[in-house]
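# nightly structure sweep
# worker-07 picked up a monomer target from the shared queue
# config: single-sequence mode, recycle default, output format = structure tokens
# input follows
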Amino acid sequence: MRPDNEFLKDPRALVQHLSQVLNRNGLKDPFLPAEPVDVKTASAVMVMLGRSPAGTVNPGEPCLILNKRSENVRQPGDLCCPGGSLMPRLDTLLSHVIQLPLLPLGRWKPWPEWKRQRPKEARTLALLLATSLRESVEEMRLNPFGIRFLGPMPPYRLLLFKREIYPLVGWVSGCQRFRTNWEVEKIVHLPLRDLLDGGNFYRYRLQMGGLSPERAGADMRELPSFRHPDGTDNETLWGATYHIAMRLLRLAFDFEPPGLAGLPVINGRLGSNYLTGNNAPGD
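# output follows
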């Protein structure tokens, strides 16, 4: 895809295109299981898209909106989509609320057909979307009336934590003013223009030894990554969120990120608190 693609200039056309792509197969392949998801291992995340804010290089252009995890949670410093684990009772209740006419699921055009033809998958979708919205409200004060649900993506299996991540794509209307809670250090906007530029990809040489004394200095991995200058910082997108973002770009634009061979190298190291984080306020 060329950087001057029409969808980068017309967010409304992009939203329409993404909606069509995510629902192209209709109900033949809904990306969701007919059986209830395992609440102990399932997570739901909102793959949040919107316009780049004022002060950026291309204000108003489409971007991917991510959280940078704070030192108080697991995987501190990582970029991630807002979301988390299911709270079955609360999220089941919320799954009915978000079907009201002005809320994301109630405004999603395919929803009535889902309920008629795929009632089991529809219940699962409503539950997962409720989880992702609840977490987005908690983490960054997302206004649920200001997001348009575009559709589900295929799940992603996270091996390190033995979790199944269910991504759900949404478009933020206007320029919402997010307010982060203790779990989030800051909000990061990654322009789609930059994500579709192969020159922004790197080989992330990651030292894993900090995870435990037994692995100190012994475990090095090289992983695909994307780097984004954010003020005085360089933010690195890697891991599960990187793969979810690349899957979205494949679905929407047939974009393939460059392979590891020949990419410039950046170095990183996981600290001893990567799997645990620090204690949350009040803990």
